[in-house]
Design a protein that fits this description.
Helix content: 25-40%
Strand order of the largest sheet: 3-2-1-4-5-6
Shape: globular
Strand content: 15-25%
């Protein structure tokens, strides 16, 4: 196994929901101008992240699991369509002084933008709304780095992403354009969702865009799958067998 073998974690709302962050854009905001919607989201979401009921212990357990059980030939990359930065915050709390062997990058790629405010956000992905057309997604350093890395990989884990809206369909469509020439064409996708119908729909969308890929259905929440030991990753050789 090559040293560069990497698990690409694609996190949607399933991760936020596992942390009790269930906030969604209010329906009446969708009638506002796009800039006004974004402004309201940027003010509201950090407050929701700070609410007492939000519990990120599931992220801490996840990071602890992969840091202690990942086989030496594998690394992990984190990509999300969420605007919140719960995962990035927990990665920062690890207090890393260098990128550890189990991690491809300590940066969480927010390909739909984020409400996180940094000293320099010039390299970050532009904010994309769920109702935006695919043309709203512009080329950015962050998204391009993530996309170009994913093309060379063969293992993906999808947590609570549906690829239903136009801006998220774009990701699969872009990957499918090179599936005949790049390793991703013969990749394996482990898809999690606790809702049977939603799980089936997501798997079908992935299979349609990447017909030679292997799609593994996991009817589960992220928290329950984590607690069970993420057996599908054992089978792929990513994790050391849980004792």
């Amino acid at each position: 196994m090559a040293q560069s073998a990497c698990v690409n974690w694609l996190f949607g709302r399933g991760l936020s929901i596992s942390c009790n962050l269930t906030w969604a854009v209010p329906g009446d905001w969708r009638t506002l101008r796009r800039e006004d919607q974004i402004g309201r989201i940027e003010k509201a979401l950090p407050k929701e992240m700070a609410a007492a009921h939000v519990d990120t212990s599931v992220i801490r357990r996840f990071l602890d699991t992969i840091s202690s059980r990942t086989n030496s030939a594998w690394r992990h990359r984190f990509v999300t369509t969420n605007w919140d930065y719960l995962l990035q915050r927990e990665v920062l709390r690890l207090g890393l002084t260098e990128v550890p062997s189990w991690m491809d990058n300590s940066h969480v790629f927010h390909i739909n933008g984020t409400v996180e405010v940094l000293k320099d956000n010039s390299q970050r992905s532009a904010f994309v709304l769920e109702d935006d057309p695919s043309s709203a997604r512009v080329s950015t350093t962050e998204a391009n780095v993530a996309w170009n890395k994913m093309l060379w990989d063969r293992l993906f884990v999808v947590i609570g992403m549906s690829f239903e809206c136009e801006v998220d369909k774009f990701l699969l469509t872009a990957l499918s354009r090179v599936e005949d020439e790049m390793p991703i064409g013969e990749s394996t996708w482990i898809v999690l969702n606790p809702a049977q119908r939603a799980l089936g729909a997501t798997c079908e969308r992935v299979q349609r865009k990447l017909p030679r890929a292997k799609v593994v259905r996991v009817l589960s929440t992220f928290a329950a799958w984590l607690e069970s030991g993420m057996r599908e990753l054992d089978g792929a050789g990513v994790l050391k067998t849980k004792g």
